[in-house]
Amino acid sequence: MRITDRVLLVLCLVAAPVAAQVTPERLANAPAEPQQWLMYSGAYDGTRFSPLDQINKTNVQRLSLQWVFQTGVRGRHETTPLVIDGIMYLTTPQNHAYAVDTRTGRPLWHYQRALPKEMSLCCGPQNRGFAALGDRLFMGTLDAHVVSLDAKTGRVRWDVAAADADKGYSFTGAPLVVKDKIIVGVAGGEYGVRGFIDAYETESGKRAWRLYTIPGEGEKGNDTWKGDSWKRGGAPTWVTGSYDPKLNLLYWGTGNPGPQMYGANRLGDNLYSDSLLAIDPDTGTLKWHFQFTPHDVHDWDSTHTPILFDDTIAGQPRKLVAVANRNGFFYVLDRATGAYLLGKPYTQVTWAKEIDGNGRPVLLPNTDPTAEGNRVCPSGTGGTNWHSPSFSPRTRLVYFFSYEQCDTFMSDEKLEPPYQPGRLFIGSAFFPLPEERQASKVRAVDPKTGNVRWEFDEFADAWAGVSSTAGGLVFAGDGQGNLIALDADTGKDLWHMQLGAPIHTAAVSYAADGRQQIAIVAGDAVFAFALPKEP
Amino acid sequence: MRMGNSGVRITLAAVLAGGLTLHLSAQPPQSSAPAEQTRNPLTGDAQAISKGAVLFRQECVFCHGVGARGGMRGPDLTTGSWTHGGSDADLRQTITDGVAGTAMPPNTLKTDEIWQIIAYLRTVQQAAPPAVGDQARGETLFFGTARCSTCHIVNGRGGRLGPELSTVGSARSRAYLVESIRQPAKQLTQIRAFGGDGLKYDTVTAVTADGRTIVGVPMNEDTFTLQVMDQSERVYSFDKKSLKSVRHENRSLMPAYDAARLPDADLDNLVAYLQSLRSTASVRKGGSHENH
Q1: Cβ A256–B224 below 8 Å, yes or no?
Q2: Dihedral of the CA atoms A416, A419, A422, A428 (nearest 10)?
Q3: Which residues of chain B carry a pLDDT beneath 70?
């Protein structure tokens, strides 16, 4: 825990000339500081693109391991580390956290939260990372608190309860700092929660606003829920959103309605589940919404990181947002207005014929879950999932991880569970057919057309996100532990390294001592790569 | 949030979730199943059984199959025989902590939810059916003319290509065993050694650059490499790119034992022998020898 003199020396040597304070201006101009990784997606636009190009297509074969940091915490590490002025800030499962010197891989401090013994966590005690402002870090916790840590020591500066963990609320996603507020999304779509997005004052931890993702009584959209089903309708917000400083709009995805595969008691579109929300970050006011899967009964959360980019459509310059959706379609919307522009399948889709001109799916018959089971593509896991997508402004392609799998979906009235606070509220199951083989792919889609430009086949069980770099590379991972560098133009694999344990997150890139590093978490450890030092 | 959400529970919970106990500094691993309550307080409680059925479908069905009758990865839980102990306390521990070395993951279910699942399991558990067939004749067939032991090992005797069968009687129902013998391709057994969904006892055919064809069972595989055991139990490691072709066939290397190859009476004898293969002690401590 103590910062030794040696480390202090190191930090002085590598620290950027600017004061080690993260400001809202630095966050808004993150691409201008490619030696940092200042927020979950690298920059507000959600593109997970590094402008660094020291590592490129011709030298990537020479990547060599610089250091490994073993967290000592067992479990699925879904975290995106932040890198600020030479120090990596890393969260792990069970709400541990570390600061690590990026030059050497040596830890500087360790934080561990005391958690309740029993928590309502559908998918494990995961955490996806920090947000940073000033000399502080912010994390949402599994027991539904938001904590602020001192970035120098890991000590708690404030700790506020956001929601009742006993009712199934938890935080797993990385918060996002917008101006003087921390925006954080909640998990609990399997527990009958009523989803929300919260904003807290960074200084005090005081809640600035809360936007419920399900409208309350008397509010517009409440009538898209049968009876009082809206009270426990889910629509969680468990993956970090994106932000456009010029439009001053926050973009955040919402998850499945609950119970997720039994819809008879929540007839209606179930707004704003499975939607993209555009929000005024100062007030929490909803500006527009777009629902991808109305009345979802297949667990197709739309919590994906929204990718913000600009392009010309029909001769007009447009501000756009792209989402490769769990429901199997790739979408492009106008991010100023929410207008639907494009929706095209990128994988096998059997539940909808197409997306109509208003952005609504044209449903195919007999695709709801039944007591005996109904085979539908994509699977409950989706054509993709939360794994971070990426967009390269050089190639103009959107990259994302995807699955080729169908599932048998079961649900029936008999197994519809009564709502009990903090208990699973699913009422159903889905599983693949034993005789079908699951495939995993990294796909590159041209957002102008929705066409798949290339795809790279991975072995089954892959769960990693992707990131892209100005070196013309896409970094991906497979479920068996390979970190893979692909040619961003063609998808050809240029380099890979077996790291010995599955990868459940996406790589980050930054510089230490003036050298570009690529860091990825595999198993319980962080691996940092760079080109060999010049002799 | 089910990120795989059910997929996760399902896929991830089973494959990856692992991380429920932390091993930092000098902390001992937490044991999440304290010994104080060893009997299920909810046995026979109709409401608990129905809640348990719901939970079972949500949490367990992917591996243990509809009605707990066994699936690709998980054993049949209706046979009345439990590999890791059948007392309430044993089942609670198995559900809570998982079983190291198998696909059975630790779970974060609450205590009363675990009791509900156990209450449900007690209702689907069957008394062992009266044995048909002659166990001793079945054993003779297994190691003799039926040539099962060419590929399957039982208590240290036999081949290594197929799944070990030393405790198969605890894990699989009679119906499953019959299907596996008559139609081995119907449900390929998952190779559980490394957790994932992707590996099963299917048939891999690899053609090398110099034209040799190797047919075998995968031992492991990732995006770039493949490790295979061929029918003479030789182990190969390939870079996929160096191969002329590599193909997974969705069939077992095991021949289908139809009635011509194995008459019904012999099938009964063989199944009687397989059903007699049950664990005598929990293998929890030593880990599983499911594969290799």
Answers
A1: no
A2: 10
A3: 1-36, 71-73, 101, 128-131, 192-193, 195-197, 280-292
CATH of domain B5-16+38-124: 1.10.760.10
Q: How far apart are CA B56 and CA B69, in angstroms?
A: 12
* Min Cα separation A13/chain B (Å): 30
Q: Are B202 and B191 a contacting pair, CB within 8 Å?
A: no
Inter-chain contact B1–A459, Cβ cutoff 8 Å? Answer: no
Helix (H) or strand (E) holding A500: none
Q: Are strands A361-363 and A136-140 parallel, antiparallel or unpaired?
A: unpaired
pLDDT digits (tens, 9 = 90+) for A65-116: 999 999 999 999 999 999 999 999 999 999 999 999 999 999 999 999 999 9
Superfamily for the A5-113+124-530 domain:
Quinoprotein alcohol dehydrogenase-like superfamily (2.140.10.10)
Nearest to A94 among B22, B61, B197 (CB): B22
- Nearest CB among A437, A461, A481 relative to B250 is that of A437
Which of A101, A143, A274, A299 is catalytic? The answer is A299
Residue to mutate among B96, B223, B225, B227, with most A CBs inside 10 A, is B223
CATH of range B131-202+250-292; options 1.10.3720.10, 3.30.70.2190, 2.60.40.420, 1.10.10.10: 2.60.40.420
A429 neighbourhood in chain B, CB within 8 Å: 6, 10, 57-58, 61-62
Residue A299 catalytic?
yes
Q: Give the nearest partner residue to B223 out of A93, A188, A478, using CB atoms.
A: A478
CATH code, B203-249 = 2.30.30.100
A243: tokens are 């932000």
CA–CA distance, A23 with A28 (Å, rounded to integer): 9
Q: B87 CA to chain A: closest CA distance, Å?
A: 23
How far is CA A154 from each of CA A18, A90, A139, B181, rounded to the nearest angstrom?
A: 21, 11, 11, 60
CA–CA separation, A487 and A260 (whole Å): 38
